[in-house]
Amino acid sequence: MTAGGNTVERSDDQDAGARSIGVAVLGMGNVGAEVVRIISDNAADLQARVGAPVQLRGVAVRDLARPRAIDPELLTDDPGALVARDDVDIVVELMGGIDPARGLIRAALENGKSVVTANKALLAEYTGELATAAARAKVDLYFEAAVAGAIPVVRPLMQSLAGDTVERVAGIVNGTTNFILSAMDETGADYEATLAEAGRLGYAEADPTADVEGYDAASKAAILASIAFHTRVTAADVYREGISAVTADDLVAAKKFDCTVKLLSICERVHDADGSERVSARVYPALIPLTHPLASVNGAFNAVVVEAENAGRLMFYGQGAGGAPTASAVLGDMVMAARNRVHGGRGPLESTYASLPIAPVDDVPTRYYISMRVADRPGVLAQVAGEFTKRSVSIAAVRQEGAGDDARLIVVTHRAPDRAQSECVAALEDMDAVIKVSSVLRLEGTDD
Amino acid sequence: MTAGGNTVERSDDQDAGARSIGVAVLGMGNVGAEVVRIISDNAADLQARVGAPVQLRGVAVRDLARPRAIDPELLTDDPGALVARDDVDIVVELMGGIDPARGLIRAALENGKSVVTANKALLAEYTGELATAAARAKVDLYFEAAVAGAIPVVRPLMQSLAGDTVERVAGIVNGTTNFILSAMDETGADYEATLAEAGRLGYAEADPTADVEGYDAASKAAILASIAFHTRVTAADVYREGISAVTADDLVAAKKFDCTVKLLSICERVHDADGSERVSARVYPALIPLTHPLASVNGAFNAVVVEAENAGRLMFYGQGAGGAPTASAVLGDMVMAARNRVHGGRGPLESTYASLPIAPVDDVPTRYYISMRVADRPGVLAQVAGEFTKRSVSIAAVRQEGAGDDARLIVVTHRAPDRAQSECVAALEDMDAVIKVSSVLRLEGTDD
């Protein structure tokens, strides 16, 4: 039994370890190239861990002509044919995007192949469809790499916490936006300049929309919420705001409240007054106290905090992107899927038994930080406070700054339904005494 | 199919979900009581996650007379008979200690029952024996709760990182010692007073030896090293020093070097000059830089940092002890073991294919912090430095403090084999100019 052998032997003896496990990789970008490298470099370790040799059957790429560090005979531009091969047991999908990844994964599952994918956009829409196909074929559908790169989050939530009740998942799961916010915090530069710098350094893509407008973080929130609450949550269920409106002033102001600003993906079990429960999934830039464990997660790092009834608060921290770290997560899944093919059994799939309703952000209790330019005259604070009182939103802190044309008022509220908070903001915008509401951010990570 | 039904139906259809999964709990201390409570409180959730009802068949306790929050008919003082019951599928061992836990677990495994245990002392000695029995019977042996309580560490290391190469695991995995060191750091009190206070607050046991002398941390290091390096490492292979010699002065001095003192469990892949590899597992109090992620892990919290070739540095943080958090980890394992009985398959067991030799601490490159009282006269520094040069240990920093009777010299070395470092210390102790070597600690968590 050698790792490099080419003979495919199949055996019904689940523990024999005599057959090899065939792997097809779809896509050879940063992550795919690392996956291919590690499968070759670590063949002996992978074989020992799986119980059978792991063999790369082929890699589907768009451009066959491009030079790559791989035996050219393994390359194909026909992913459909690769997926359909009888000697492929596991399909590792790293193309990204909905199509053709969706059809290829379905075809793989329907043909009894296990699938490992890092495709968060696809999973955030079609986990239901894919999990159903996997369940029908009794194969694995693993996707650790879809959320927070190398950091084990999906498996701990699905397996380690399988006996607990998750109350909340809050994470920094997008490296681009965290790099930008960290850099703005450190340098005092504004958003546009920092985004441009992030682009130059390779931390932001040419079209950064998916990152900076929170679409990527929202896909990950949908995936995390689905797992945490045993409820199907899709990207469309996630309330989303990006970071493009965050200003250098916001970061300065945050510091005065011993806070910083982070783009958070928040998944929360909402306990309604009648004892029923709903799920909230949302993404927005928020103030968090400097003492909160997520406050010190800087640069391109990711971290996810999980709060569960019995486990209490757990944090998972590490590299959320990059070829090798993401490949590490992909290969962990690949080894487990391969091992299941050798030893029998399979990992848990999507679980939606709880089917909790989605709570719109309007209903979710949040806290607001509101910064506004106001007329510098007596009575303004009382008038402003009145708008909050009217909507039963109680004020936690007020700071008055500047004078004359630069008179500013900063208000931080206590928890109240987000609708009431946003109605306060709308009312302030209509007030004569308020010249401009210059910034509105939510405040997360506090106990009250 | 109700969670409360008592009929045990067995079926060969792996997906039927018609039979119930019978659970026996051995031991009803803090953790056992929480496990029993959660099985009853969360019956519907557990059933949905497992795919079959989970039913508590019985709980073995030492003292039947003691009042407990449980149907007395479930209690027994005959754990052997409970484990042998035909309607028990999973044995949850929470008695602790080697005997009778060892025999009961073996009997359970040999009778085809899956086992979930939190027994680190047992695992650190007898994982080999137990895993062999589990492999033979094709059942699960899970032990997430044995290391770092609620924090998922075992499963991420065994599964999520199954495709990576772990280089290093360093953890704060003993809450008692971390509480004591954190309190000493905060209050400036000495070890004895802080230990007494920890006892009063319930953070230290009446006989604190297992914690303060590092035996508990060493057991966990053995377990972590075994998993991380696919090599059997037992408690006897772990070099061990406790915290009882750490002084208030050490914590003050650590701060001057922008460090703090933590009891670390370190598991390291040692790369020898000839290209071969060995495993080092060791426990000692060490200085770590305040910027290191483990430096801010305070009180009874635990954290484990894993460094892997591709994943980079990951950190797992949370509650390392306590009834409910530990029960969360136990129940995650129980759900996965139960799920495997319903759906077929089983989790990975001990993997020892790498069988790396153990590196004695003498051979491991370490850094030292040495504080000594010296004679206040010219030439002492040169003389001290000479002892290091003689043994090819290079000095990274020197601090001279005080004068006259209180003249002190603090030396921090660069990395060199631990034997050379400790020989330097012995030589210093023999020097006339050195009145007393008052403190020796290793320095960890630095790159150089």
UniProtKB/TrEMBL annotation, chains A, B:
Enzymatic class: oxidoreductase
GO biological process per UniProt: methionine biosynthetic process; threonine biosynthetic process
One GO MF term attached to the UniProt entry: metal ion binding
Binding site for NADP(+): L26, G27, M28, G29, N30, V31, G32, A33
Keywords, ordered alphabetically: Amino-acid biosynthesis, Metal-binding, Methionine biosynthesis, NAD, NADP, Oxidoreductase, Sodium, Threonine biosynthesis
Domain ACT: 369-442
Binding, L-homoserine: E205
Sites where the protein binds NADPH: K120
Pfam family of the protein (one): NAD_binding_3
Active site: K220 (proton donor)
The keyword Amino-acid biosynthesis appears for this protein: yes
EC identifiers of the protein: 1.1.1.3
PROSITE patterns according to UniProt: ACT, HOMOSER_DHGENASE
Cofactor field: a metal cation
Catalytic activity, reaction form: L-homoserine + NADP(+) = L-aspartate 4-semialdehyde + NADPH + H(+); L-homoserine + NAD(+) = L-aspartate 4-semialdehyde + NADH + H(+)
Pathway: Amino-acid biosynthesis; L-threonine biosynthesis; L-threonine from L-aspartate: step 3/5; Amino-acid biosynthesis; L-methionine biosynthesis via de novo pathway; L-homoserine from L-aspartate: step 3/3
Domain of life: Bacteria
Role: Catalyzes the conversion of L-aspartate-beta-semialdehyde (L-Asa) to L-homoserine (L-Hse), the third step in the biosynthesis of threonine and methionine from aspartate.
Family in the record: Belongs to the homoserine dehydrogenase family.
Name of this chain's protein: Homoserine dehydrogenase
Organism name: Gordonia bronchialis (strain ATCC 25592 / DSM 43247 / BCRC 13721 / JCM 3198 / KCTC 3076 / NBRC 16047 / NCTC 10667)
